[in-house]
Specification:
Elements (H helix, E strand, L loop, with lengths): L4 E4 L10 E4 L2 E7 L13 H18 L7 E8 L5 H11 L6 E6 L9 E8 L2
Parallel strand pairs: 4-5
Antiparallel strand pairs: 1-2, 2-3, 3-6, 4-6
């Protein structure tokens, strides 16, 4: 790792870091919606989305970035019917202007999550 690179939230032996800084860019790994005990926050898409965005924010802040630095988001959902409720939370919690975004329907997510969010942030 050179001096402009930094792994965020890496646990020795884990197969990934929660985030990775390369120069002025932060890559946030897929974040799910665990509760304060580290367990998945039930089956409610609203709560899971709220917590997943909170986890993205935590990784960004640990790396010295702000939510306003996020330029791209990918949202993975297991149920297309959850899009309206996910969008309500997303619109409320993501700063304006909203980053570029893709929403992808997947067959399943690790741990039975209903949503997972990854992001890219750039310091101007």
């Amino acid at each position: 790792m050179n001096t402009q690179e930094q792994a965020i939230g890496f646990t020795k032996g884990a197969p990934f870091s929660n985030g990775y800084v390369a120069g002025k860019t932060l890559y946030v790994a897929g974040q799910q919606g665990p509760d304060s005990n580290g367990r998945l926050a039930g089956v409610d898409i609203t709560l899971q989305t709220t917590n997943a965005i909170g986890a993205v924010k935590k990784v960004a802040e640990e790396a010295g970035f702000q939510m306003a630095d996020i330029v791209s988001v990918t949202i993975y959902l297991t149920d297309i019917n959850d899009v309206p409720k996910m969008n309500e939370v997303y619109k409320a919690l993501m700063p304006d202007p909203k980053p570029a975004r893709a929403a992808v329907l997947v067959a399943g997510l690790i741990g039975g999550a209903k949503v997972e969010i990854s992001a890219i942030a750039v310091k101007q």
